[in-house]
Amino acid sequence: MTQRDRPAIQTRCVHAPVPANVRGTPLSVPIYQTSVFAFDDLDEQVQALSDPRLGYSYSRFGNPTVRALEQAINALEGAVDSVAVASGMAAIAVALGAELRSGARVVSQRDLYGGTASLLTDLEQRWGVQVSYVDVADPTAVSAALKPGTSVLFLETISNPMTAVTDIGGLAELARAAGVRTVVDNTFSSPTGCRPLDWGADVVLHSTTKYLGGHDDLTGGVISYADAELHQAGAAYARLIGVTPDPHNAWLTLRGLKTLGVRMRQACANATELARRLSGHPAVAAVHHPSLSSHPQYDLAARLLDQPGAMLAFDLRGGRDAVAALVPRLRLVQLAASLGGVETTISHPVSSSHRGFTAESLAAARITPGTVRLSTGIEDVEDIWSDLESALDQ
Ligand SMILES: *Cc1c(COP(=O)(O)O)cnc(C)c1O
Is the CB of 187 under 6 A from ligand 1? Predict the structure, then answer.
């Protein structure tokens, strides 16, 4: 049979030429929208399959766009290495799942993101993990809880929604002395506000859905490690359970990261100014933001955080009815169950993120029916204030 001068149309549809590398580096990381990588050499493929650090073989194991995101995060968090995953919850599941065995002990901050609390309950009920919750403002209680056999101390830099600030440095030191690994959810701060690995944490994670992506257009997560062995275990577990992200997701996050510095600077300045103005409004009983001298961890926040954060909460005197009346009066500020985007949004914890809480746990967290959470965006602060003020004045 003679070689045909060109393949049939069906074959040509499939085998479009892939451009070879040319001179000039793309300024923006390309989206390697491929699930698999081809090889000319059997041994090279075997190598790439057995160790993703030696080459790309299959995108669940590794992908150049995803890798670029992981390296960008390493630079921000000061990490030895990072693992990008498909959501913030996947980041928490990998950080804990790679570390825990059945019967292991976890000590956790009491005021937690709701999804984290549900995951810990699931680990407790179905996997035999023992979880104890502590008040992280009480180092003696944390010390006492870090009993022999404890694997992980789980913390959040800034809590939802009351913006309590956790002494990452002090507690990580206690954990280290007890042979316990510290895992920190740094989503509310973002790396521009705090870098927990610098304060002695072993693992830091983010929902990149929030500030790192920053535009309310993606769902993602990332886990960063201070230690290469821990990273290897996390990366292997993420591949095993298949929570690694799609290349397009990683690319959107990389694009978001480019403006993280300017977004956080503006959003935190806006939050600081809004916290000050809300404190003076007659409809507002209390404002919670680390920039306020009335904040219970004001001094700690000034030491730990380079920025006070763009999340704030305020309690309306009129309770739930006042919140229900406020929402439809707002024109610029939207009611939305996420945070960390360029748009200013509000949420009502009692009817959204904390709707499963008992009256006692709400009281313990100092959340009232009139508590409103504000995720401050990057709009001009005068426009946000005029929207809030006119809605509050009515
Ligand atoms: C949103 C959030 C998560 C979960 O992230 P997803 O991307 O929704 O899975 C975890 N922790 C904190 C603090 C969050 O705000």
Answer: yes
